[in-house]
Amino acid sequence: MEPVATEQGILPDDALRTFAQALRESAAALYDDARLEVAFEAPRRPEFGEFATNAAFSLARVARASPQDVAQRLTSDLAERAPRVAALFASIEPVGGFVNLRLAPQIWQAAIACVVRDGENFARASHRGERVSLEFGSANPTGPLLVVQGRALSIGDTLARTMRLRGYDVFVEWIVNDAGGQLETLGRSLDARYRQLIDPAHPFPEDGYPGAYLVEIARHLRDDGADEDVDAMTPEQRIDFMARFAADAIVAEQRRCADRFGVEYDLWQSERELHERGRIQAGVERLTELGLTYEADGAIFFRATQFGDDKDRVLVRADGRPTYFCTDVAYHYEKLRRADRVIDVLGPDHHGYIGRLAGLAAALGYPGRLEVLIAQQVTLVRGGEHVAMSKRAGHIVTLDEILDEVGLDATRFFFAMLATDSPLTFDLKLAVDESNDNPVYYVQYGHARICSVLRKADASDVEQARYAELRSLDHPAELALARRLCELPHLAQSVVDQLAPHRLARYARDVATDFHQFYTECRILAEEPELRRARLALCLAAQRVLSVVLGLLGVTAPESM
């Protein structure tokens, strides 16, 4: 198999595909037409190479030899049979049964030329025609957005941006839980705050929402001159009015905060609207049509145990009121019908929903289409001291307060740093520290340093660097940076496939580290024109990659700091 060359030369993926085919041909020749599966991974230690394959292990039994002996025979045969393929690699070494590989410098040089040429389109995949419904951040309309919602916003929006980069049609949505018992509690809470404006001694409900935000909403209601209208209502009408007024005001603030956080939603879906449009009933009817409901003690149950749940779930209570799960049925039924992939990013107290919602999707005829991601809890610290938070007690730290203290860039980066299922400790002091210990500062400084180099260079050199010959890029620090930059397309796709946005934050730090190393070890504005322009081309590629990754994270890429 001949390697496929582009205008820039042979690219890493093409070189690896060519090697895999040549290795399969060697296996067939050596071991009676044996079929060999060849996959590549990064070795655990960089001294072992850039890529490795364990293909020899699968042939060891057929060959009646150790994996190391098989690996040695395969590589020797390949070198003799396909010397042009072997020439694509700086080294091909059988070690411990693995075949470790290092690509030749010209492969990485061609890859950097592609990064520079593609510019804004680097790592962008063609349109796939796959529709994704992505719900994240949804918070009960009973108070302002808090820290844990901020983490869900960062995770969800980063996923949405990355999916769009990789060619998916992403529909971003938020469910407003503006129905049910919590709204009645909210109504009683606002009513108490409203009455306390006249009579401070008026009692507040023990199960009410004590946050100061309701005092402000009560003042707004009073300022709107609602006294006569409210006084004319029956107690039931009054609580319902208060609940709707408070929920509408809180949702408006949640939308403003999400906008401040840089997140745009395609749909804010009201639960109340689902009731009014008959969608709740439609969901129950669909499960009934499928034979998956039954009545017991006057209530309607979903046969959830048929789909792995620990018990059957009540859909409609004996008094005719739908349960919260019934709303889940209706909402997810709508999403599953219009999307090829449905993803919910839920809060840390929703672990029980993972299997339940997966079972619901299967019951509705869409097995495997719905995925649940849990955004784990966030602990705030400042200067080594724990910052206490309790919504029920009224001691809350809002997302707005975090943004006020540390800014949007640090907030979004810190929220995305760790795997979603890992608890996060957010150090507010570190987030504003202008040092390399602060990861977002470190990455942004890397981008600013690249911009500084490009400003100092002659403008004609920078322009010519876009089309420069890159054969002189062979220093270890240059090749290490080149390899890192070329990871972005695969890295971005892995973020989408495995719902792992934290990989982008880690990758951004790795790129910055490799650039700082290159900056330290290589004189970028060298006297020799070809070398100078080649290194400026590498700077252009690094700038582009860092800019893309920071953009996916919702973080700015400053040109100076």
Description:
The chain is of the alpha/beta class. The model has no long low-confidence stretch (mean pLDDT 93). It has helices spanning 12-30, 55-63, 67-81, 83-86, 105-118, 147-165, 181-196, 213-223, 227-231, 235-260, 271-276, 279-289, 324-338, 353-363, 399-406, 408-416, 428-431, 439-456, 459-465, 476-485, 488-498, 502-521, 529-552, and strands at residues 51-53, 89-95, 98-103, 131-136, 169-176, 267-270, 293-296, 299-302, 313-316, 341-346, 370-374, 378-382, 385-387, 424-427. The strands form four sheets. Strands 6-5-4-10-11 form a five-stranded parallel β-sheet, sandwiched between helices. Strands 1-3-2 form a three-stranded antiparallel β-sheet. It has a three-stranded antiparallel β-sheet with strand order 7-8-9. The longest helix has 26 residues, at 235-260. The protein is globular and about 90 Å long. Helix 14 (353-363) links the parallel strand 10 and strand 11 (370-374). The chain has five domains: 12-103, Gyrase A, domain 2, CATH 3.30.1360; 110-126 and 435-552, Isoleucyl-tRNA Synthetase, Domain 1 (Orthogonal Bundle), CATH 1.10.730; 131-177 and 266-374, Rossmann fold, CATH 3.40.50; 181-259, no CATH class; 378-431, no CATH class. The protein has 23 helices and 14 strands.
